[in-house]
Structure formats: C-alpha cells, structure tokens
Amino acid sequence: DARVTQTPRHKVTEMGQEVTMRCQPILGHNTVFWYRQTMMQGLELLAYFRNRAPLDDSGMPKDRFSAEMPDATLATLKIQPSEPRDSAVYFCASGPRLAALTDTQYFGPGTRLTVL
Amino acid sequence: AQSVTQLGSHVSVSEGALVLLRCNYSSSVPPYLFWYVQYPNQGLQLLLKYTSAATLVKGINGFEAEFKKSETSFHLTKPSAHMSDAAEYFCAVSGSGNTGKLIFGQGTTLQVKP
Asked: CA Rg, chain A, in Å?
C-alpha cells in the first residue's frame, strides 16, 4: 500500500532554531505539495513542485521558509529561524501525473510543529 | 479565479440521520471538484471527485455528491450517519493552469451524536 511518509511526526523546538521537515512522495508521483494547517487559517498551500522543480512558492514566507526536492524521493521544508507563529501541522501531498486537473492528491500524516 | 465556500463550519447529526455538508464553488472554467476527509490526527484522504463524467458521484464509505451547475454547488450527502463519520470534511476545486493545484474550502467538522 503506497503512502506518503513524513518525518518527524512531532517536533518541539525553541524559537530561533532551524526546523527541517521531510517528505517521501509515493514512488512515481511527480507533483509534490506542502500545506500548513492551523485552527485560524485552515489549510494553506505553501509550495508545490512538478518534476522536482518549484512551480509556485508564493504561499511561503520567503525570509524564513525554503522548500526543495533534492531528488525524486525526497522533499524538504525548512524554517530558519523558527517563530512561535509557525506552530502548525505541516502536510506533504503527492500527485500521480504531470499536472492533471483531476489528479487526486495523496496526503502524508503530517508533522506537528510546536515552536516555544 | 477558483474558490469554494463551505457553509457551516460545524454540523452535528444523530447517528442514523442524514448527513448534508454544503459546498458552493466559483470557477471561471468548467470545474473539477473534490471532497476530502480528515480524521483526527491524520492527513486528508479523498472521498470522491467530480470529473465531468457524471453529475452524481459516489465515493467511499457511502458518501455521494451531486454536481449542480445551475446552483454552483457540490454538496456531500450520506443517508445514514455512523459514529465513524465524525471528522473534518474539505471541499476543493482544481486551480487554473492545469497544475494539479487544489483550492480548499475552510472545512466542516461533522459531529455524530449517539
């Protein structure tokens, strides 16, 4: 049963520290999305990639967030420096085809980040 | 630009009662619409999607949704609620540009009372 995996599942850190979240998309999927979920803002799209190239990262605070895909099996989301307002659940999702309007996105279990 | 509006952030039903979760969309092009469900402490998973093949779409766990162009709606229904249906439900529409990007609504939390 192919699944999107995310590590770590939980992360507690102090303000100012660097945080790296990792995602392994489903093998063969070539679109990857990063979302942030909070009670106040709901589900927000931060960035997405197609064939490892960033298509849109306009949802990310550029000064502190960065997203990359070093290879087809790994996507990373980094926050440096982290702030308490970054506390949220971060989801990665992958999609199976080259940018199809009817693609299903497959979500990972999320990383719950708490910044103290 | 595409957008979705989910009417009601919280819906409460009794076990065995009809479930109706409302979603209205706005789209400048023919829309592709989705319902996702999120169980506590889990990621989202697809319930069903409308891809223009049929206006009544059946999904997993007994859910279905009907696309009504005249009403710009895609409401989610289930004839009889089960305790295990308690979750958060998200309606989404495909973004423009054939990117695979989804525009999500704010979500509706479904509570099922015994």
From this structure: 13
